[in-house]
Specification:
The protein has three domains: 183 residues, 3-Layer(aba) Sandwich (Rossmann fold), CATH 3.40.50; 185 residues, 3-Layer(aba) Sandwich (Rossmann fold); 96 residues, GMP Synthetase, Chain A, domain 3 (2-Layer Sandwich), CATH 3.30.300. Helix content is 31%, strand content 24%. The protein binds xanthosine-5'-monophosphate. Xanthosine-5'-monophosphate binds next to loops.
Length: 506
């Protein structure tokens, strides 16, 4: 296997670097910066990338890596902070930049294997510090008006570094850059693809499970469904699936999902009605991270009870995917939210985890699902978070608020589907904002709730843009929600991209 390791110094968009490498057909993984050399070397190491960071190389607590990585004989590429760190560790000079750059700027490239087939063009700059003297043995290979040392190389040692962010789509030759690094410099063949890995994943599942029983939490979403399909292929009836109705599902969801699993996927699924249990655990809780922890723990307790009933299952299958792991703080980046199936897990529970999709992004999971022949309606279902409507209600969760949310969400989904926009929009749902305001309906004053509509386009949920739903359709959605859902007198449309927002409101 060809593998590129990205040492994650904590920039929020380091996942994008991993994606860009994978788009070139090379497996990539993010590791904490001080990972051991053995861990970094692992199997098939073809190259190392040092990521960006909010740190400064001069700060005492600025993150570092082991100097041995420059001696491993594989190419190393520093990006932004990665360039500054490489420079600092190898004897060059880094200083505060006279102007803080945060923009797309024109770069001039010199002859270098890193810039093959890249004419002078726009690159994305976002930095406070910059290299003012390259280490001995390095040449300057790119410059911009404000940044005379915008990239450096030492070809004999196979060390390269760029001050700009090639992973961001605003860098015009973004894909070509990663092709140059992975193919020309690291010599990878680019034969990796998630579909090619299916046999290997199934073998790994068999090896981990042995003769033991597995329970799977199914949510109706693509991740847990693809995970269950893989395990079912690997170990057949040792797998029992559990669909938990936690009372935070959308309208008609439990019926639809159960029908789907039984009829179309022929999985052995038990439905557990845990509505009262979850809602009583959540009563009065308003803090979003606390809600997530309670939901994560309640799931595990339900699975433990059910595992006993089927004669003791030792493994719990989860549809955890790579962004869940990263956003929950397992790399170098800060914790954004505790995804219920990663950071939301209690400290102690009676299972060994089985997480075959942990290294994959959502579109890769979908590709695996399609290659397994799973129904398209399931593979392309819009993502629905494990904690469900629990993370779409601001403030405490009550049955009344849940009903308002379910009814408004159902109307939105109905209208988006009728307009044929359900495939082009990544996610669309309503939010219970908790705000009340004065309105007028039928000549009378109202003092009712505002419902938020959220709809975003994306390819991987890491960065999103709000969906440009036609105003006419927005008006129809708003009119229907106010007319058909009691206690709602206002509908607002969220026009925030991610970043700076997130997809969910919580
Ligand atoms: P955010 O709100 O972080 O969401 O922009 C990114 C994507 O992740 C989904 N999401 C979750 N999915 N368990 C899940 O299975 C979770 O705890 C969770 N939290 C957010 C969200 O719906 C979006 O697709």
């Amino acid at each position: 296997m060809e593998r590129i390791v990205i040492l994650d110094f904590g920039a929020q968009y380091n996942q994008l670097i991993a994606r860009r490498v994978r788009e070139q057909g090379v497996f990539s993984e993010l590791l904490p910066p001080m990972s051991s050399i053995d861990r970094i070397r692992g199997e098939g190491l073809s190259g190392i990338i040092l990521s960006g960071s909010p740190d400064s190389v001069y700060a005492e607590d600025g993150r570092r890596c082991l100097p041995e990585i420059f001696e491993l004989g594989v190419p190393v590429l520093g990006i932004c902070y990665g360039m500054q760190l490489m420079t600092h560790m190898l004897g060059g000079k880094v200083e505060q930049a006279p102007v803080r750059e945060y923009a797309g700027v024109k770069a001039h490239f010199e002859q270098s294997p890193l810039f093959s087939d890249m004419p002078d063009s726009t690159v994305w700059m976002s930095h406070n510090d910059m290299v003012t003297k390259a280490p001995d043995g390095f040449h300057v290979i790119a410059s911009t008006d404000e940044c005379p040392i915008a990239a450096i190389e030492n070809t004999s040692k196979r060390l390269f570094a760029v001050q700009f962010h090639p992973e961001v789509a605003h860098t015009e030759y973004c894909a070509q850059f990663f092709k140059n690094f992975t193919r020309n410099i690291c010599g990878c063949t680019g034969s990796w693809s998630p579909e090619n890995l299916i046999d290997g994943i199934i073998n790994d599942i068999r090896a981990q499970v042995g003769g033991r029983k597995v329970v799977a939490g199914l949510s109706g979403g693509v991740d847990s469904s693809v995970a269950a399909a893989l395990v079912s292929k690997a170990v057949g009836d040792k797998l029992t699936c559990i669909f938990v109705d936690h009372g935070l599902l959308r309208k008609n969801e439990a019926e639809e999902v159960m029908h789907f699993y039984r009829e179309n996927m022929r999985l052995n699924v038990i439905e557990v009605d845990a509505r009262e249990y979850f809602l009583s655990q959540l009563a009065g809780v308003t803090e979003p991270e606390k809600k997530r922890k309670i939901i994560g723990e309640s799931f595990v307790r339900v699975f433990e009870r059910e595992a006993k009933k089927i004669g003791g299952a030792e493994l719990l299958l989860q549809g955890t995917i790579y962004p869940d792991v990263i956003e929950s703080g397992s790399g170098g980046a800060s914790v954004i939210k505790s995804h219920h199936n990663v950071g939301g897990l209690p400290e102690k529970f009676g299972f060994e985890l089985l997480e075959p999709l942990r290294p994959f992004f959502k579109d890769e999971v979908r590709a695996i699902g399609e290659a397994l022949g799973m129904p398209k309606e399931l593979v392309w279902r819009q993502p629905f978070p494990g904690p469900g409507l629990g993370i779409r209600i601001l403030g405490d969760i009550t049955e009344e608020k849940l009903n308002i949310l379910r009814d408004s969400d159902w109307i939105l989904r109905d209208e988006i589907k009728k307009a044929g926009m359900d495939r082009e929009i990544w996610q669309y749902f309503t939010v219970f904002t908790g705000m009340r305001s004065v309105g007028v309906m039928g000549d009378s004053r109202t003092y009712d709730y505002a419902i938020g509509v959220r709809a975003v386009v994306s390819t991987d949920a890491m960065t999103v843009e709000f969906a440009e739903i036609p105003h006419k359709l927005l008006r129809k959605i708003s009119n229907r929600i106010i007319a058909e859902v009691p206690h709602v007198n206002r509908v607002v449309y969220d026009i925030t991209d991610k970043p700076p927002g997130t997809i969910e409101w919580e």
